[in-house]
Amino acid sequence: MQSLGLDVAMPPFLDHRRQFTTQESNESRCITKIRWTVEAVNRRIKEFKYFANTVQNSSLMYLQDDLSIACALINCYRPPIATSKPEDVELGREMRSLITKKNRLEKVNKDRSSSIPAVERKQLVEAVLHMGNH
């Protein structure tokens, strides 16, 4: 894909963490916006019964031609999933610039977390039950 000038991107995984960093969250949102179009195209291709099921090994030699025909039919008889607008380039630039932008709420939470005492689950349950009695 890279030899075609395409950038292959995959969203991050949590890997036993509770949440993503701000930058990972921003990157994931950006990838999701792009993947939506790719998945919508894949859905259109899978509307052809041939591509909705597992393709048999004996058909592999025809797969590229069959896919080309299906895509040509989609392009000819279906409306575009999305069309480019003049503001798309600027929107893309803004999305890319926001990927590295720090999250103000994250900083506030970090500043406050050191001053908030830890509460045990038992204490929390007792406090909630006590509130219900009043």
**What composes the largest sheet?**
none
Helix and strand element order: HHHHHH
Please work out how many helical segments DSSP would assign.
6
Strand coverage percent? under 5%
The total count of strands amounts to 0
Number of domains: 1
Name the assembly state: single chain
Shape: elongated
Question: Mean pLDDT score, rounded?
Answer: 84
Rg over CA atoms, rounded to whole Å, is 24 Å
Q: Uncertain spans, ≥5 residues at pLDDT below 50?
A: none
- For the record, give the distance between the C-alpha atoms at the N and C termini, rounded to a whole number: 65 Å
Q: Which class do the helix and strand fractions yield? A: mainly alpha
- Overall helicity: 55-70%
Could you please describe the fold and organization of this structure?
The chain has 134 residues and is mostly helical. The chain has one domain. It has six helices and no strands. The chain has helices at residues 22-46, 49-52, 63-77, 88-98, 104-113, 121-132. The model has no long low-confidence stretch (mean pLDDT 84).
Short description:
This protein is mainly α and 134 residues long. The protein has helices at residues 22-46, 49-52, 63-77, 88-98, 104-113, 121-132.
